[in-house]
Amino acid sequence: MEQDIQSSQSSEVAAKGVLLEECEEQFGLLQKLQNEIILADTEANDDQSNEAVNCLIAITSELEQWQEIEPTLLTTSPEVLLAVGKELQRLNSQLKMVPSCSQAKLDVQKKILKREQTQQAEKKEALNAVCEKITRLQRENEKSEHSILQDMKRKINNLKDYHSSLMEMLSDMLAEHFPLPDPQGNGTKKKRAAAYDAEINLISLSEIIERLTNKTLETPHDPYVSTDDTFWPPYTEMLLRNGIATRHPEDCNKIRMAIFF
What is the distance between the alpha carbons of residues 187 and 193, in angstroms, rounded to a whole number? Predict the structure, then answer.
């Protein structure tokens, strides 16, 4: 039995060797023909058109002859044909496996594509939800900011109105209890001693306080107000003595509103 197997294997090897020799022989013949064609092209003379026509006629005639010839096998050896048949069967079985492998790979790629499409759709849906939420928050923020600004404006206006009413009440109270002096010096001895030139347009105590307040709020880095002839000295001294105003450390003609905190 083992001898039969060994003899069969040796026969196949020999058959393959014979087939290879015949293939090499045919391949050598093809190379020879190719070299003749190349040599014929290099030896072409000036009358190339006539030679091309003759060459075409010759090739056409040879083609017709080859078409009439029936193809023959390279070899008729049963061992060679058996070896070639086995090799072709092996190649055929391998080729049959190609479509199934390709289909399996195609199915895997389809699953991957479907999964990626699903993930992309989910990401797109999440992105749209986030964009909608951001837009809604921006609108709510704008409304909230607008509402806050309106509320602040309303409060500021209320404070301004309250401040104006307080200033009016303070102005009325100061005008009643701290009137401007009589320019003629009529009245008590104290008032006559504090008489002033009628040509000077004095400002009231409420206006002095208002100037000091506005200067402190408008220019806190330089809150001092210069006192000129329009400031009645008794009112200026009264503000300084009661701690309502303070004098400039280097210029006695400047005062500012005192710091109460």
Answer: 10
What is d(CA 65, CA 51) in angstroms, rounded to the nearest whole number? 21
Could you report the per-residue pLDDT of 62-84, keeping only the tens digit for each? 777 777 766 666 666 777 777 77
Give the helix ranges, DSSP H, for the chain: 2-42, 48-68, 78-177, 189-193, 205-218, 233-241
Q: 19 is written with which tokens?
A: 């087939």
Q: What is the Cα–Cα distance from 29 to 22, expressed in whole angstroms?
A: 11
Dihedral in degrees, nearest 10, Cα atoms 179, 185, 191, 193: 130
SS3 for 112? Answer: helix
Using the predicted structure, report yes or no on whether residue 15 has a pLDDT greater than 50.
yes
pLDDT for position 189: 45
Structure tokens at 248: 């400039």
DSSP structural state of residue 222: S
User: What distance in Å separates the CA atoms of residue 7 and residue 1, rounded to the nearest whole number?
Assistant: 10
Rounded-to-10 torsion of CA 18, 20, 24, 26:
70
